[in-house]
Amino acid sequence: MNKIFKKIFIIILIIMLLLAFSKSYSTLNIDNLSVVVAMGIDVSDKNNLKISFQFTNPSSVSESGTSEQSPSIIYTVDASSISSGINLINTYIGKSVNLSHCKVIAFSEELATRGISDEIYTLTNDTQIRPSTNIVISKTSARYYLEQSKPLFENLITKYYEVFSASSSYTGFTSNATIGDFFDSLICHSCEPYAILGGVTNNSTEYTGATNSENDSSTKSNSSSLSGQSTAENTGLAIFKDDVLVGELDSIETLCFSIIRNNVDGFLISVPNPNKSNSYIDLHVTPLTEPKVKVNISNGTPYITLDCRFTGRIYSMEDGADYLDSTMLDQISDSCNSYLESAITEYLYKTSKALNSDINGFGKIARKNFLTLNQFYDYNWSEKYKDSFFNVTVNSSIRSSSLLTES
After folding, report:
1. Of 290, 322, 325, 358, whose CB is crowded by the most CB atoms within 10 A?
2. CATH numbers and ranges of domains, the chain
3. Per-residue model confidence as pLDDT tens digits over 193-239
4. How many CB atoms lie within 10 A of CB 201?
Protein backbone atom coordinates (compact mmCIF):
# COMPACT_ATOMS: atom_id res chain seq x y z
CA MET A 1 0.00 0.00 0.00
CA ASN A 2 2.83 2.39 0.88
CA LYS A 3 4.43 1.75 -2.51
CA ILE A 4 1.21 2.79 -4.29
CA PHE A 5 1.05 6.04 -2.29
CA LYS A 6 4.71 6.76 -3.08
CA LYS A 7 4.10 6.26 -6.80
CA ILE A 8 1.04 8.51 -6.72
CA PHE A 9 3.02 11.18 -4.82
CA ILE A 10 5.87 11.06 -7.34
CA ILE A 11 3.44 11.35 -10.27
CA ILE A 12 1.69 14.36 -8.69
CA LEU A 13 5.06 16.01 -7.98
CA ILE A 14 6.19 15.56 -11.59
CA ILE A 15 2.92 17.04 -12.89
CA MET A 16 3.26 20.04 -10.58
CA LEU A 17 6.83 20.67 -11.72
CA LEU A 18 5.85 20.45 -15.37
CA LEU A 19 3.02 22.94 -14.84
CA ALA A 20 5.27 25.30 -12.86
CA PHE A 21 8.03 25.46 -15.47
CA SER A 22 6.08 25.04 -18.69
CA LYS A 23 5.52 28.82 -19.13
CA SER A 24 9.12 29.78 -18.37
CA TYR A 25 10.32 27.11 -20.74
CA SER A 26 8.20 28.48 -23.54
CA THR A 27 9.44 32.04 -23.01
CA LEU A 28 13.11 31.13 -22.56
CA ASN A 29 13.16 28.62 -25.39
CA ILE A 30 16.04 29.40 -27.74
CA ASP A 31 13.55 29.52 -30.62
CA ASN A 32 11.95 32.55 -28.95
CA LEU A 33 15.24 34.40 -28.38
CA SER A 34 17.29 36.52 -30.74
CA VAL A 35 20.92 36.64 -29.63
CA VAL A 36 22.78 39.94 -30.12
CA VAL A 37 26.53 39.58 -30.77
CA ALA A 38 27.30 43.32 -31.01
CA MET A 39 25.63 46.69 -30.60
CA GLY A 40 26.32 50.00 -32.30
CA ILE A 41 25.09 53.31 -30.90
CA ASP A 42 24.98 56.47 -33.02
CA VAL A 43 23.35 59.88 -32.84
CA SER A 44 20.16 59.94 -34.93
CA ASP A 45 18.97 62.80 -37.10
CA LYS A 46 16.32 63.53 -34.48
CA ASN A 47 19.08 63.96 -31.86
CA ASN A 48 18.02 60.73 -30.18
CA LEU A 49 19.90 57.45 -30.39
CA LYS A 50 20.27 55.26 -33.44
CA ILE A 51 20.85 51.76 -32.07
CA SER A 52 22.08 48.92 -34.27
CA PHE A 53 21.77 45.29 -33.21
CA GLN A 54 23.95 42.69 -34.90
CA PHE A 55 22.57 39.16 -34.93
CA THR A 56 23.98 35.95 -36.36
CA ASN A 57 22.48 32.64 -37.37
CA PRO A 58 24.85 29.86 -36.28
CA SER A 59 22.67 27.19 -37.90
CA SER A 60 23.58 28.54 -41.33
CA VAL A 61 27.17 27.35 -41.00
CA SER A 62 27.92 24.56 -43.43
CA GLU A 63 27.88 21.16 -41.80
CA SER A 64 30.13 19.70 -44.46
CA GLY A 65 33.04 22.05 -44.05
CA THR A 66 34.41 25.15 -42.38
CA SER A 67 34.79 27.47 -45.36
CA GLU A 68 31.25 28.87 -45.27
CA GLN A 69 30.82 31.79 -42.89
CA SER A 70 27.72 32.37 -40.84
CA PRO A 71 26.20 35.66 -42.06
CA SER A 72 25.31 38.43 -39.65
CA ILE A 73 22.18 40.55 -39.76
CA ILE A 74 22.00 44.16 -38.57
CA TYR A 75 18.80 45.95 -37.59
CA THR A 76 18.78 49.64 -36.66
CA VAL A 77 16.14 51.55 -34.74
CA ASP A 78 15.76 55.19 -33.67
CA ALA A 79 14.84 55.50 -30.02
CA SER A 80 15.06 57.88 -27.09
CA SER A 81 17.05 55.38 -25.02
CA ILE A 82 18.68 51.96 -25.20
CA SER A 83 15.85 50.33 -23.25
CA SER A 84 13.27 51.84 -25.58
CA GLY A 85 15.27 50.66 -28.59
CA ILE A 86 15.35 47.09 -27.28
CA ASN A 87 11.59 47.21 -26.73
CA LEU A 88 10.99 48.47 -30.28
CA ILE A 89 13.27 45.86 -31.87
CA ASN A 90 11.51 43.13 -29.86
CA THR A 91 8.26 44.17 -31.50
CA TYR A 92 9.79 44.34 -34.97
CA ILE A 93 11.50 40.95 -35.05
CA GLY A 94 8.87 39.14 -32.97
CA LYS A 95 11.46 37.63 -30.65
CA SER A 96 12.98 38.62 -27.34
CA VAL A 97 16.39 40.28 -27.74
CA ASN A 98 19.02 38.60 -25.58
CA LEU A 99 22.24 40.50 -24.75
CA SER A 100 24.01 37.84 -22.71
CA HIS A 101 26.32 37.01 -25.63
CA CYS A 102 26.99 40.57 -26.75
CA LYS A 103 30.78 40.82 -27.23
CA VAL A 104 31.21 44.42 -28.43
CA ILE A 105 29.42 47.71 -27.88
CA ALA A 106 30.51 50.38 -30.36
CA PHE A 107 29.83 54.08 -29.86
CA SER A 108 30.27 56.61 -32.64
CA GLU A 109 32.85 59.33 -32.10
CA GLU A 110 30.09 61.93 -32.46
CA LEU A 111 28.14 60.46 -29.55
CA ALA A 112 31.25 59.97 -27.40
CA THR A 113 32.20 63.65 -27.67
CA ARG A 114 28.79 64.51 -26.16
CA GLY A 115 29.15 62.11 -23.24
CA ILE A 116 28.02 58.50 -22.82
CA SER A 117 27.46 58.18 -19.07
CA ASP A 118 23.71 57.56 -19.44
CA GLU A 119 24.32 54.74 -21.90
CA ILE A 120 27.12 53.21 -19.80
CA TYR A 121 25.00 53.25 -16.64
CA THR A 122 22.04 51.74 -18.50
CA LEU A 123 24.12 48.95 -20.03
CA THR A 124 25.94 48.20 -16.77
CA ASN A 125 22.60 47.97 -14.99
CA ASP A 126 21.40 45.35 -17.49
CA THR A 127 22.00 41.92 -15.98
CA GLN A 128 22.47 40.41 -19.44
CA ILE A 129 25.46 42.60 -20.32
CA ARG A 130 28.70 41.00 -19.17
CA PRO A 131 31.42 43.19 -17.62
CA SER A 132 33.89 41.65 -20.10
CA THR A 133 32.09 43.16 -23.10
CA ASN A 134 34.53 45.31 -25.09
CA ILE A 135 33.90 49.03 -25.59
CA VAL A 136 34.85 50.52 -28.97
CA ILE A 137 34.74 54.17 -30.05
CA SER A 138 34.39 54.20 -33.83
CA LYS A 139 35.81 56.94 -36.05
CA THR A 140 32.97 56.11 -38.45
CA SER A 141 29.33 55.50 -37.59
CA ALA A 142 28.91 52.59 -35.22
CA ARG A 143 26.63 50.77 -37.67
CA TYR A 144 29.20 51.05 -40.48
CA TYR A 145 31.91 49.76 -38.14
CA LEU A 146 29.79 46.68 -37.38
CA GLU A 147 29.05 46.14 -41.08
CA GLN A 148 32.78 46.13 -41.87
CA SER A 149 33.73 43.82 -38.98
CA LYS A 150 34.07 40.49 -40.77
CA PRO A 151 35.76 37.34 -39.51
CA LEU A 152 38.69 36.27 -41.67
CA PHE A 153 39.78 33.02 -40.06
CA GLU A 154 36.61 32.13 -38.15
CA ASN A 155 33.15 31.04 -39.30
CA LEU A 156 31.32 32.89 -36.55
CA ILE A 157 31.64 36.60 -35.95
CA THR A 158 31.14 35.88 -32.25
CA LYS A 159 34.52 34.15 -32.25
CA TYR A 160 36.08 37.11 -34.06
CA TYR A 161 34.75 39.52 -31.43
CA GLU A 162 36.11 37.26 -28.68
CA VAL A 163 39.69 37.30 -29.98
CA PHE A 164 40.09 40.62 -31.82
CA SER A 165 41.55 42.35 -28.74
CA ALA A 166 43.93 39.48 -27.94
CA SER A 167 46.74 41.12 -29.94
CA SER A 168 47.11 43.65 -27.11
CA SER A 169 49.29 41.18 -25.21
CA TYR A 170 51.88 40.80 -27.99
CA THR A 171 51.74 44.16 -29.81
CA GLY A 172 50.52 46.68 -27.24
CA PHE A 173 48.86 48.64 -30.07
CA THR A 174 45.39 48.17 -28.60
CA SER A 175 43.95 47.19 -25.23
CA ASN A 176 41.31 44.87 -23.84
CA ALA A 177 39.02 47.73 -22.79
CA THR A 178 35.77 46.46 -21.27
CA ILE A 179 32.55 48.05 -20.10
CA GLY A 180 33.33 46.83 -16.57
CA ASP A 181 36.64 48.72 -16.54
CA PHE A 182 35.00 51.77 -18.13
CA PHE A 183 32.30 51.91 -15.47
CA ASP A 184 34.80 51.45 -12.64
CA SER A 185 36.92 54.31 -13.99
CA LEU A 186 33.85 56.47 -14.53
CA ILE A 187 32.97 56.39 -10.83
CA CYS A 188 36.62 56.49 -9.70
CA HIS A 189 38.24 59.58 -8.12
CA SER A 190 41.78 58.56 -9.12
CA CYS A 191 41.61 57.41 -12.75
CA GLU A 192 39.81 58.05 -16.04
CA PRO A 193 38.08 55.79 -18.62
CA TYR A 194 39.40 54.65 -21.98
CA ALA A 195 38.11 52.51 -24.85
CA ILE A 196 39.35 50.75 -27.97
CA LEU A 197 39.71 53.10 -30.94
CA GLY A 198 37.94 51.55 -33.90
CA GLY A 199 37.69 52.57 -37.52
CA VAL A 200 37.46 51.43 -41.11
CA THR A 201 40.33 51.36 -43.58
CA ASN A 202 39.96 53.08 -46.92
CA ASN A 203 40.51 50.49 -49.64
CA SER A 204 39.15 52.67 -52.41
CA THR A 205 42.44 54.55 -52.86
CA GLU A 206 45.99 53.33 -52.96
CA TYR A 207 47.94 54.11 -49.80
CA THR A 208 50.83 56.43 -50.59
CA GLY A 209 52.08 57.27 -47.12
CA ALA A 210 55.67 56.78 -46.02
CA THR A 211 56.68 53.49 -44.48
CA ASN A 212 59.44 54.52 -42.10
CA SER A 213 59.30 53.52 -38.44
CA GLU A 214 57.99 56.86 -37.27
CA ASN A 215 54.87 56.56 -39.43
CA ASP A 216 54.45 52.89 -38.56
CA SER A 217 54.42 53.74 -34.86
CA SER A 218 52.01 56.65 -35.27
CA THR A 219 49.26 54.70 -37.06
CA LYS A 220 45.79 54.40 -35.57
CA SER A 221 42.35 53.28 -36.65
CA ASN A 222 40.93 54.98 -39.74
CA SER A 223 44.35 56.25 -40.87
CA SER A 224 46.53 53.22 -41.48
CA SER A 225 47.81 51.50 -44.63
CA LEU A 226 45.99 48.23 -43.91
CA SER A 227 43.89 46.63 -46.60
CA GLY A 228 42.00 43.37 -46.92
CA GLN A 229 38.59 41.73 -46.97
CA SER A 230 37.76 42.93 -43.47
CA THR A 231 38.15 46.70 -43.38
CA ALA A 232 37.41 47.25 -39.69
CA GLU A 233 40.46 47.90 -37.54
CA ASN A 234 41.16 48.42 -33.85
CA THR A 235 44.40 50.30 -33.33
CA GLY A 236 44.91 52.90 -30.62
CA LEU A 237 42.82 54.08 -27.69
CA ALA A 238 40.04 56.59 -27.19
CA ILE A 239 40.68 58.75 -24.11
CA PHE A 240 37.95 60.13 -21.87
CA LYS A 241 37.65 62.83 -19.24
CA ASP A 242 34.77 61.61 -17.13
CA ASP A 243 32.30 60.38 -19.79
CA VAL A 244 33.40 62.70 -22.60
CA LEU A 245 35.85 61.74 -25.38
CA VAL A 246 38.78 64.17 -25.26
CA GLY A 247 41.45 62.60 -27.45
CA GLU A 248 43.08 59.59 -29.09
CA LEU A 249 46.28 57.61 -28.78
CA ASP A 250 48.17 56.23 -31.76
CA SER A 251 49.92 52.86 -31.76
CA ILE A 252 53.17 53.84 -30.00
CA GLU A 253 51.28 55.90 -27.39
CA THR A 254 49.00 52.92 -26.76
CA LEU A 255 52.10 50.74 -26.37
CA CYS A 256 53.39 53.15 -23.70
CA PHE A 257 50.04 52.87 -21.93
CA SER A 258 50.28 49.07 -22.07
CA ILE A 259 53.86 49.10 -20.75
CA ILE A 260 52.94 51.20 -17.72
CA ARG A 261 49.87 49.05 -17.05
CA ASN A 262 52.02 45.90 -17.46
CA ASN A 263 49.51 44.57 -19.99
CA VAL A 264 51.94 43.57 -22.74
CA ASP A 265 54.05 40.39 -22.71
CA GLY A 266 56.39 41.49 -25.52
CA PHE A 267 56.42 43.93 -28.41
CA LEU A 268 58.25 44.88 -31.60
CA ILE A 269 59.72 48.36 -32.00
CA SER A 270 62.02 50.07 -34.50
CA VAL A 271 64.77 52.17 -32.91
CA PRO A 272 67.35 54.43 -34.59
CA ASN A 273 70.45 52.60 -35.77
CA PRO A 274 73.34 54.07 -33.75
CA ASN A 275 75.83 53.30 -36.56
CA LYS A 276 73.84 54.44 -39.59
CA SER A 277 71.84 57.64 -39.96
CA ASN A 278 68.26 57.50 -41.24
CA SER A 279 68.20 53.78 -40.53
CA TYR A 280 66.31 51.71 -37.97
CA ILE A 281 66.76 48.38 -36.22
CA ASP A 282 63.81 46.15 -35.35
CA LEU A 283 63.88 44.83 -31.80
CA HIS A 284 61.60 42.43 -29.96
CA VAL A 285 61.45 43.67 -26.38
CA THR A 286 60.14 41.89 -23.29
CA PRO A 287 59.53 43.47 -19.87
CA LEU A 288 61.77 42.01 -17.19
CA THR A 289 59.70 43.26 -14.26
CA GLU A 290 56.56 45.25 -13.64
CA PRO A 291 57.27 48.98 -13.98
CA LYS A 292 58.05 50.71 -10.68
CA VAL A 293 55.96 53.83 -10.22
CA LYS A 294 56.30 56.41 -7.45
CA VAL A 295 54.12 59.48 -6.93
CA ASN A 296 55.21 62.28 -4.61
CA ILE A 297 53.36 65.50 -3.86
CA SER A 298 55.57 68.56 -3.39
CA ASN A 299 54.00 71.99 -2.80
CA GLY A 300 50.77 70.62 -4.21
CA THR A 301 52.40 69.39 -7.45
CA PRO A 302 52.59 65.69 -8.40
CA TYR A 303 56.04 64.32 -9.25
CA ILE A 304 55.85 60.90 -10.88
CA THR A 305 58.87 58.66 -11.42
CA LEU A 306 58.78 55.58 -13.61
CA ASP A 307 61.44 52.86 -13.82
CA CYS A 308 61.16 50.21 -16.58
CA ARG A 309 63.48 47.28 -17.28
CA PHE A 310 63.52 45.22 -20.47
CA THR A 311 65.37 42.52 -22.28
CA GLY A 312 65.30 42.11 -26.03
CA ARG A 313 66.79 40.67 -29.17
CA ILE A 314 67.53 42.01 -32.63
CA TYR A 315 65.01 41.07 -35.31
CA SER A 316 66.28 42.86 -38.41
CA MET A 317 69.65 42.09 -39.98
CA GLU A 318 72.05 44.33 -41.87
CA ASP A 319 74.83 43.29 -44.20
CA GLY A 320 78.24 43.83 -42.63
CA ALA A 321 76.97 44.62 -39.14
CA ASP A 322 78.56 42.68 -36.30
CA TYR A 323 75.63 42.07 -33.97
CA LEU A 324 77.79 39.82 -31.79
CA ASP A 325 80.09 42.68 -30.83
CA SER A 326 79.45 43.73 -27.23
CA THR A 327 80.14 47.39 -27.97
CA MET A 328 77.55 47.46 -30.75
CA LEU A 329 75.01 45.66 -28.54
CA ASP A 330 75.57 48.28 -25.82
CA GLN A 331 74.99 51.04 -28.37
CA ILE A 332 71.76 49.40 -29.55
CA SER A 333 70.64 49.02 -25.93
CA ASP A 334 71.31 52.72 -25.35
CA SER A 335 69.32 53.57 -28.48
CA CYS A 336 66.44 51.42 -27.22
CA ASN A 337 66.58 53.14 -23.82
CA SER A 338 66.57 56.59 -25.36
CA TYR A 339 63.73 55.74 -27.75
CA LEU A 340 61.44 54.29 -25.07
CA GLU A 341 62.25 57.01 -22.53
CA SER A 342 61.33 59.66 -25.09
CA ALA A 343 58.16 57.86 -26.23
CA ILE A 344 56.88 57.20 -22.70
CA THR A 345 57.67 60.75 -21.54
CA GLU A 346 55.87 62.29 -24.52
CA TYR A 347 52.90 60.01 -23.92
CA LEU A 348 52.70 60.96 -20.23
CA TYR A 349 52.82 64.69 -20.92
CA LYS A 350 50.15 64.26 -23.61
CA THR A 351 47.76 62.55 -21.21
CA SER A 352 48.45 65.08 -18.46
CA LYS A 353 48.97 68.47 -20.15
CA ALA A 354 46.91 68.07 -23.32
CA LEU A 355 44.16 65.69 -22.21
CA ASN A 356 44.23 65.90 -18.38
CA SER A 357 43.15 62.28 -18.22
CA ASP A 358 44.85 59.83 -15.84
CA ILE A 359 44.04 56.64 -17.72
CA ASN A 360 47.00 54.86 -16.11
CA GLY A 361 45.55 55.35 -12.63
CA PHE A 362 48.50 57.16 -11.03
CA GLY A 363 45.97 58.66 -8.64
CA LYS A 364 45.63 55.27 -6.93
CA ILE A 365 49.31 55.48 -6.03
CA ALA A 366 49.07 59.18 -5.13
CA ARG A 367 46.51 58.36 -2.43
CA LYS A 368 49.35 57.05 -0.26
CA ASN A 369 50.47 60.66 0.24
CA PHE A 370 47.29 61.48 2.16
CA LEU A 371 46.19 60.37 5.61
CA THR A 372 42.52 59.99 4.71
CA LEU A 373 40.45 59.55 1.56
CA ASN A 374 38.67 62.82 2.29
CA GLN A 375 42.00 64.63 2.15
CA PHE A 376 42.69 62.99 -1.20
CA TYR A 377 39.25 63.96 -2.49
CA ASP A 378 39.81 67.55 -1.34
CA TYR A 379 43.12 67.59 -3.22
CA ASN A 380 41.10 66.99 -6.44
CA TRP A 381 43.48 64.68 -8.29
CA SER A 382 41.30 64.78 -11.38
CA GLU A 383 42.29 68.40 -11.96
CA LYS A 384 45.77 68.35 -10.42
CA TYR A 385 47.01 65.60 -12.74
CA LYS A 386 47.60 68.16 -15.50
CA ASP A 387 50.26 69.81 -13.32
CA SER A 388 52.33 66.60 -13.04
CA PHE A 389 56.05 66.31 -13.80
CA PHE A 390 57.57 63.00 -14.94
CA ASN A 391 60.94 61.31 -14.73
CA VAL A 392 61.21 58.17 -16.86
CA THR A 393 64.14 55.74 -16.68
CA VAL A 394 64.49 52.78 -19.05
CA ASN A 395 67.15 50.08 -18.78
CA SER A 396 67.28 47.44 -21.46
CA SER A 397 69.67 44.65 -22.34
CA ILE A 398 69.62 43.81 -26.06
CA ARG A 399 71.22 40.66 -27.40
CA SER A 400 71.72 39.34 -30.91
CA SER A 401 69.15 37.29 -32.79
CA SER A 402 68.20 33.88 -31.43
CA LEU A 403 69.69 32.26 -34.58
CA LEU A 404 72.87 34.31 -34.52
CA THR A 405 75.40 32.90 -32.06
CA GLU A 406 79.12 32.58 -31.74
CA SER A 407 80.48 29.64 -33.77
Report:
1. 358
2. 31-262 (no CATH), 266-407 (3.30.300.210)
3. 999 999 998 754 433 333 344 456 667 776 666 565 557 889 999 99
4. 19
